[in-house]
Each structure stands twice: as structure tokens, then as C-alpha cells.
Amino acid sequence: MCDALVLEERVDTLEDILGRFIVSTDASLNRLSLEMRDFKDEMRDFKEEAIQDRKNMNRQWGNLANKMGTLVEDIVAPAVRPAVRRYFGCDVNDFMISRKRKNRKLDLKGEFDVIAVGDDRVFVVETKSSPSEKYLHQFAGKTELFRKLFPEYTGKHLTLIFASLRFDEDIISLASREGVYVLAYREWDYMDILNFEAVELGSGQGSC
Questions:
Q1: Residues 131 and 171 sit within 8 Å (Cβ to Cβ)
Q2: What's the confidence (pLDDT) of residue 67?
Q3: Is residue 208 in a domain?
Q4: Residues 149 and 172 placed together within one structural domain of the fold
Q5: Nearest CA to 145 among 127, 132, 164, 126?
Q6: Domain C-terminal end among 68, 86, 118
Q7: Which domain holds residue 53?
Q8: What is the overall mean pLDDT for the chain?
């Protein structure tokens, strides 16, 4: 009888200890859950702030390069290789910036901001700080001039890319109809071709 009472007391004590442990564990888990949620919220806010800071920096850097006249060298030229690789699958074998050429026999001359040469394609990039329909039409009409000034690229598919910091939607739509790709900041995050699908659907140019 005595042993039964002792056993019952021990069981009661154990249940009490387990009960307090469970309560304490639940409280700890709830506290940990709240702390983890707060941490996730802080990390999300930090990530959003970092993204916004990068966009602001890109905008400021682009505006500065625009004012200093180094838009091609500082912003556009570094973006051409990755854009060409990403969208056309082309490795650039030759790369030229601000390339001028004359042909005295034909009485022709021209200057091209960026020329990137791949195995089967040659990419010609025109950059304008304030793009307009007039500049777009002028650039789209440079195909024959380029062919005559750079006959060594005969046989390669000529791809025109119009570049700036940003474009209005009507200019992008017009460029797509003209078969000209548009390279600019995508929401000030990174330089990207903004109308690749539209031009591809309209021309069926394909990749390298």
C-alpha cells in the first residue's frame, strides 16, 4: 500500500514536471516563431532597400554618364556583350567603340557607337541620350551605309540595337516595327533588351 502511494506521488510529480516542461517549450517555440518572423520581415525589408538603393545608384550613374558624355563607354558598351550572349547565344569575337570609317572612292563616311562581331552576326549599336522617332529612323536607315563601309562583314546577319537610359513606349513600339532592338535599363535594375520578343516575332531573325 505504501509503495503504491509513493508510486502515485512520483507519477503526479512527473506529470507536473512534464506539464511545466510542455508549457515552457510551447512558450519558447512561440517566442522563437515570433523572432523568426520578425527576422524574415527585417531581411525582406533589407532586400527591398538594397534593390531600391541599386536602382537609385544606377539612375544616378546613368544621369552622370549622360551629362559627362560617357554614356556609351560607361553604360551601354559594358551591357552589349552580356545582352548579345543572353538573347542571341553569340560569343563576341571583335568589339569596337566609337568606330569611324571613310570610303573616299564612294565618298562615304560614318561613325558607329558600338560594333560587336560574332561568328554569324554583326551587331551595330546606336546610343542617344534623348531618343526620338527621328533618331530611330536615321539609325534604321544606316544598314546600307554600314554594309558599304564595312564590306568585310558581308555574309553576316546585321542586327541593329538602339540604346539609351530609358525609352517611351511609343518609341519601343516603333523600333519593334522597324526591326530594331531596344537596349535600356529595365526598371533601373539592369540594362536589357526591352523588345526582343516583339522583334523576333516580327522578323523571325533567330539566333547565331
A1: yes
A2: 78
A3: no
A4: yes
A5: 126
A6: 68
A7: 1-68
A8: 86
> How far is residue 171 CA from its own chain's centroid?
19
pLDDT of the residue at 195: 97
What number is the average pLDDT over the span 188-203?
Answer: 91
Name the 3-class secondary structure at 94: strand
The residues facing 53 across adjacent strands are none
Instruction: Give the pairing of strands 108-117 and 94-103.
Output: antiparallel
CA angle 102, 84, 206 (to 5 degrees): 100
The last residue of one of the domains, among 45, 68, 91, is 68
For residue 110, which phi and psi values (nearest 5 degrees)?
-165, 160
Are 165 and 130 members of one domain?
yes
CA-to-CA distance for 44 and 23, rounded, in angstroms?
Answer: 31
46 in any annotated domain: yes
Check whether residue 198 and residue 102 sit in a common domain. Answer: yes
- Report the candidate in 109, 93, 101, 97 with the shortest Cα–Cα distance to residue 71: 97
* Sequence-separated contacts (24+) of 146-152 with Cβ below 8 Å: 146/110, 146/112, 148/103, 148/106, 148/108, 149/101, 149/102, 149/103, 149/108, 149/109, 149/110, 150/101, 150/115, 150/122
**Cβ-proximal residues to 34 (8 Å cutoff; 6+ apart), any chain:** none
Number of independent structural domains in the chain: 2
